[in-house]
């Protein structure tokens, strides 16, 4: 995978670029602290063979630079250490396939910039990039969905000007696309005309993640192309803050712009949105968490694998063997969430008001999405911020492509631009099991306990 974007090879932007840094992951590739000179990485396409320059090597990962004359298209890659050669990895090689380095090394979140922000509209910014090709391609840069008026490729990356009308925020997304090349990962920069948009003072070392969820869905399950259900749920986790660490929830874009996440994930984490990617140490919040509201009381039980995660299906007719259909629980009104606490954290009582739930007004009209054309969604209702979301998972590789757009306040409609859909996998029409190819609108009421109201539908991404 690209050493900067960490984008899986199965996605459009996951090709390895000539002259670009890439990372190989797998068991027993070498040993930790191995001398790079003792490791050999070879790329073979038919009779053509090239050797990559190894930068660093360990037991489960090797990082190298692809040769400038590596063969384009499908190829095989092997790693040799102490006369032992790995099973060939299938790779795809392109002239250019950019990746923006991020501070967390995961391919999302704050970009690795030449100087710290915040940045002002009109200011020049340089981000560290690999995969621009040999010689480097000319590039287009978008900042918060707006094209940068000035760009230049430098020795270490790409330098660009923040557009004068750029949205402001701590996490304004930046995307790079070379001429005729693939779309990069989204990385973020802080943009503000005055002040610091990332300054969030807090004296509490414990981060609360408490979400009450209402999901209305029209999904494809097995032979049924339109299984409709409405379900209420809740999930909670309390975690000790890790300094300088952020969660994907923190990196959501400012209103009127979109960001993307393109990673390889464990499919089991998809049933726990957000929590599978959270940073920090999970804390014991007590034996169970209680929710009190207009419809009565419900209990969030500890997880079986991770006992610091609490969850429950509160009502509805979700397709679950563990929970039979029951009346919906999250009607609009006031709610109280109580965590009894433990030696690890004090007891907490969290007040939250559930607003009217969001309703998609054109989901029935959308069955297929041409990624190259974008897609428009409309809705009514919902309190707080409204996000338009497109997601798909390539099940064989575990690669997920996710696009999240923050709608302007009170908009009622939003069009996801084609650029933001480029790294979503194409839907496999033969796929079965869980619906993993979804389009929808999500209302998120913050701060404090989140109220998440979603209206989603299974679609075919072309």
Structure description:
This protein has four domains: 19-93, Immunoglobulin-like (Sandwich); 99-191, Immunoglobulin-like, CATH 2.60.40; 202-241 and 280-354, Immunoglobulin-like (Sandwich), CATH 2.60.40; 356-462, Immunoglobulin-like, CATH 2.60.40. The longest helix is centred in the last third of the chain and has 4 residues, at 418-421. The protein has 462 residues and is mainly beta. A hairpin with a 3-residue loop joins β4 and β5 (61-65). The protein has one helix at 418-421; strands at 16-17, 21-25, 39-45, 48-57, 61-65, 73-81, 84-85, 89-94, 99-100, 124-130, 139-143, 146-147, 151-153, 157-161, 169-178, 187-191, 206-221, 224-240, 258-264, 281-282, 288-293, 296-302, 309-316, 333-339, 348-354, 359-360, 368-369, 375-380, 385-394, 399-406, 413-416, 438-445, 450-458, 460-461. The two termini are 23 Å apart. The strands form six sheets. Strands 17, 18, 19, 20, 21, 22, 23, 24, 25, 29, 30, 32 and 33 form a 13-stranded mixed beta sheet that branches. Strands 1, 2, 3, 4, 5, 6, 7 and 8 form an eight-stranded mixed beta sheet that branches.
């Amino acid at each position: 995978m690209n050493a900067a974007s960490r984008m899986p090879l199965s996605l459009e932007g996951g090709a390895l670029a000539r002259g670009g840094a890439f990372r190989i992951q797998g068991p027993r590739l070498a040993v930790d602290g191995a001398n790079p000179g003792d490791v050999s990485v070879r790329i073979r396409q038919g009779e053509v063979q090239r050797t990559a320059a190894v930068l660093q090597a360990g037991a489960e990962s090797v990082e190298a630079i692809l040769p400038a004359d590596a063969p384009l298209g499908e190829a095989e890659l092997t790693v040799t250490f102490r006369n032992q050669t790995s099973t060939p990895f299938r790779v795809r090689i392109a002239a250019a396939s950019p990746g923006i380095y991020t501070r967390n090394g995961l391919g999302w979140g704050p970009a690795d910039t030449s100087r710290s922000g915040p940045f002002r509209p009109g200011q020049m910014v340089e981000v560290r990039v690999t995969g621009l090709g040999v010689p480097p391609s000319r590039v287009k840069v978008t900042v918060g969905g707006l094209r940068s008026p000035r760009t230049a490729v430098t020795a270490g990356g790409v330098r660009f000007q923040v557009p004068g009308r750029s949205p402001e925020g701590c996490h304004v997304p930046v995307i790079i696309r070379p001429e005729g090349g693939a779309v990069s990962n989204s990385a973020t920069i802080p943009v503000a005309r005055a002040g610091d948009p990332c300054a969030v003072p807090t004296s509490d070392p414990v981060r609360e993640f408490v979400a009450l969820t209402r999901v209305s869905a029209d999904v494809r399950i097995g032979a049924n192309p339109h299984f409709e259900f409405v379900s209420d749920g809740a999930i909670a986790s309390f975690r000790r803050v890790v300094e300088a660490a952020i969660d994907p929830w923190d990196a959501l874009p400012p209103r009127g712009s979109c960001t993307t996440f393109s990673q390889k994930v464990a499919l089991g984490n998809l049933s726990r949105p957000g929590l599978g990617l959270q940073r920090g140490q999970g804390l014991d919040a007590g034996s169970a968490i209680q929710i009190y509201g207009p419809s009565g009381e419900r209990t969030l039980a500890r997880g079986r694998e991770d006992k610091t995660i609490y969850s429950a299906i509160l009502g509805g007719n979700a397709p679950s063997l563990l929970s039979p259909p029951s009346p919906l629980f999250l009607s609009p009104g006031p709610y109280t969430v109580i965590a009894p606490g433990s030696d690890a954290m004090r007891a907490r009582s969290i007040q939250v008001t559930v607003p009217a739930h969001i309703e998609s007004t054109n989901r029935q009209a959308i069955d297929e999405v041409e990624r190259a054309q974008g897609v428009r969604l409309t809705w009514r209702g919902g309190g707080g911020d409204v996000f338009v979301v497109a997601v798909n998972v390539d099940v064989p590789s575990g690669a997920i492509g996710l696009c999240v757009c923050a709608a302007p306040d009170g908009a009622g409609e939003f069009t996801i631009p084609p650029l933001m859909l480029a790294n979503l996998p194409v839907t496999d029409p033969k796929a079965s099991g869980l619906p993993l190819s979804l389009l929808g609108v999500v209302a998120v009421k913050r701060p404090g306990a989140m109220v998440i109201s979603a209206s989603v539908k299974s679609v075919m991404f072309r």
